[in-house]
Specification:
The chain is an alpha+beta fold and about 375 residues long. Helix content is about 25%, strand content about 35%. α2 runs antiparallel to α3.
């Protein structure tokens, strides 16, 4: 009986003490999760970069007139080709024509007065040498000659000013161009210097050379140096490509779009291509140093920063990267911290944190 009571007592003690003993026993260490990794592949093969853009005139100008009057001649219309110096239009300005005629008459009068004053001054010098007139008289005639000469210069200046204004009545082309738009008809009254921005006569464009303007993302924009070659294709010209070279870039990224304006030059001597045509520029470029190919499902985006989860010394480490072209199953990435031996985690767990312990799966493990 006593032995049975003792056994029951020990059983009760073991039941009571079991939770306490379990709390005092340290838990078994958790097994690190197993991850699959891949090695980045250096990108060395030249690849095509395709960027949409639009053609623009190499030069463009809206032509105004500084003369106010009635248009009596309009020599060109939309689509016409003009040469530098060609007369585009003539404005009838009768009041200015009369002012030029009056100024010419004033110049003739001033020339006569100046010639007469000069003759009198020379004669006075001779008479004073013979003591026929006083020095004061000779000095007065010399001063009159100077005044007449100055008046002649003023008259000639006025004539030149009116003639220059009259020349503005003849509107000329500043360069070889095509008439893109016309804003007047013969008989219209046009205003000169007081004209508003809408008072232009012609819109001229030079398109024998075209700009091809495009917006390039950083990975492409920073690699496009002047004279980089490209081929441009247009849907309206199937089967044809047009050679182009990079001329300049803005060197500034648009804060809203995150792109940089880049301009290419396209020779267009036969005016085959119009301005304003949308096409695609294709660049064959070798990837920049430090560019690798990794599977698309290795890229992690956190707080707006793209990175790769890697394994270093059995622990998770995140490497910041710059994204390049998405090639479908793979994507181009750039980072100075990547090497061909870096172990990049495939499909990294969203709960991974830097420093977490992991185990790399065997090469053939699934």
């Amino acid at each position: 009986m006593i032995a049975r009571s003792r056994s029951l007592h020990l059983l009760i003690l073991s039941l009571v003490a079991a939770p306490w003993l379990a709390a005092q026993t340290p838990p078994a260490p958790a097994t690190p999760p197993v991850v699959r990794t891949v090695a980045p592949i250096p990108a060395t093969k030249a690849a095509a970069y395709s960027v949409p853009g639009r053609t623009e005139p190499i030069e463009s100008a809206r032509i105004f007139t500084r003369a106010t009057g009635i248009v009596k001649e309009r020599r060109f219309d939309i689509g016409d080709r003009v040469k530098a110096g060609d007369i585009l239009a003539v404005v009838d300005v009768p009041d200015l024509t009369r002012a030029v005629e009056s100024s010419r008459a004033n110049v003739e009068q001033a020339e006569a007065r100046a010639a007469n004053a000069k003759t009198l001054a020379q004669r006075a010098t001779q008479l004073m040498a013979a003591n026929s007139i006083s020095r004061e008289e000779a000095d007065q005639r010399a001063a009159n000659a100077d005044i007449a000469e100055a008046a002649l210069r003023v008259a000639r200046s006025d004539l030149a000013r009116f003639e220059e204004q009259l020349n503005f009545a003849t509107v000329r082309s500043p360069f070889d161009a095509v008439v893109a738009a016309r804003n007047f008809d013969r008989g219209d009254r046009v205003r000169g210097d007081a004209a508003t921005a809408e008072g232009w006569l012609y819109h001229l464009v030079r398109i024998d050379t075209l700009r091809f303007a495009l917006s390039a993302a950083p990975d492409l924009a920073l690699r496009l140096e002047p004279n980089t070659r490209a081929q441009i294709r247009f849907g309206e010209f199937p089967g044809r490509t047009f050679a182009a070279t990079v001329a300049r870039s803005s060197r500034v990224f648009d804060p809203a779009a995150g792109t940089m304006r880049v301009e290419l030059l396209v020779e267009n001597p036969e005016l085959v291509l119009p301005a304003g045509l949308t096409g695609t520029a294709i660049f064959e470029l070798v990837p920049a140093p430090g560019t690798f190919l990794v599977p698309t499902n290795t890229v992690v985006s956190r707080a707006g920063q793209n990175s790769l989860a890697t394994v270093q010394g059995g622990k998770v480490s995140f490497v910041d990267i710059g994204l390049g072209r998405n090639l479908g199953s793979t994507v181009e990435v750039t980072s100075a911290a990547l090497t061909p031996k870096t172990a990049v985690i495939v499909n990294p767990n969203a709960l991974f944190r830097a420093g977490d312990a992991v185990t790399i799966a065997a090469p053939n493990a699934k």
